[in-house]
Amino acid sequence: MRMTNLSTLFWFATAIKVVALVLGAFIVYLAYMGYRRNASKPLLYAALGFALITAGTVTEGVLYVLVGTGLLSATAGGTVITILGFIAIIYSVYSTK
Q: How far apart are CA 83 and CA 56, in angstroms?
C-alpha cells in the first residue's frame, strides 16, 4: 500500500512540473513577442529570466528522476538556474532601453 501512495505522489509531482513547464513556456513566449514587437531589450531579459526560472524548475525533476543524482544535488542545480533567472529579471527591471 505504501508503494501505491509513492507512485501516486510521483505522478502528481510530475504533473505539477509539466503544468509549470507549460505556463513558464507561455510566459516566455509572451515576453519574447513583446520584445519583438517593441524592440525592448528589457523584455528580452525578462523572457530570458522566465526561461531560466522555468528551466530551473524542470531541471530538478530531470536531474533527480532521469539522471539519478541525489535529491540535494538536484535541488541545488535547479536552484542555481532559478537564481540566474531572477538575476536576469532584476536586470530587465533596472536596465534602460
A: 8
List, for residues 13-51, the tens digit of each pLDDT value: 888 889 999 999 999 999 999 999 999 899 999 999 999
Conformation bin of residue 96: beta by default, left when phi > 0, alpha when psi is -120 to 50: beta
Mean pLDDT for the stretch of residues 54-81: 90
H or E element: which one contains 97? none
pTM of the shown model: 0.83
Q: What is the DSSP string of 19-77?
A: HHHHHHHHHHHHHHHHHHHHT-HHHHHHHHHHHHHHHHHHHHHIIIIII---HHHHHHH
Cell triple for 9: 505522489
Sketch the domain layout of the chain as residue ranges. Answer: 2-94
